[in-house]
Amino acid sequence: SDAYKLVSKKWKVKPTSIDLGDGVFIKEGDMAVMAGPCSIESEEQIVKVIDHLKENNIKIMRGGVYKPRSSPYAFRGLGIDGLKLWHKLASEAGIKIITEVMQVSQIEEMLDYVDVFQVGARNTQNFNLLDELGKVDKPVMIKRGISGTIEELLQSAEYVFSGGNEKLILCERGIRTYEKASRNTLDLNAVPILKDKSHLPVVVDPSHGIGIRKFVHQMALAGVMAGADGIIYEAHEIPEKAYSDGQQTLNFAQSAQLTSQIRQTFAMR
Length: 269
Ligand code: PEP
Ligand code: MN
Known about the structure:
By secondary structure, the protein is of the alpha/beta class. Helix content is 36%, strand content 15%.
């Protein structure tokens, strides 16, 4: 089909390697671990997460400062001031930042303070946002839409790539199905299919994928075995007190164990 072209392996055979600087990559043949809270909450929280990441040699911290919440009354993030503070603390610690951009107007103010822009599942088909991210010289990770197909994810990536930004990462984060026993249905089929169709690196998000803390571990390791180039998951010192997504967030002991097992599993893949 000609629904997409530039992101396909027919166009470019060599796998795309995302270089975040300082020896940090998201690429085939490597295993990028990205961990952190759903929401950036406070300076104290940022410092605790950074210490945890450093102890476990995790180089990329996730976290939202603009949160797409289903309810308008839920915590919606610390915004640009939170991002600036986070960036200062993270760069001092040698940690890279991945965070969600929700709208076009935020791109410019965020640009100097992020290492990877995340496009969230609710914005996968925000074509204006994708067009603008196509003009930016920063990596972009596009999450699969809530009810999005694999082809639609690739077409969204095509928007950014054809706009001139080839630094792209794809993320499987679960899709909405009839199944209600889990938050989403993590479609691990998407991993080998995306790897087969596209030269872009593929990341799995088991936290949003299953939405249940005690099962994040299994799904993360299943994602590694399915062929993911990276795993992104939620971690917080006290998940029960997290401002968002605590039910699917690992504590630091669980996160340390998971990261070590992700690396072991990848090494024997
Ligand atoms: C998140 O990463 O916290 C998030 C909101 O993810 P998604 O867009 O996949 O729901
Ligand atoms: Mn979340």
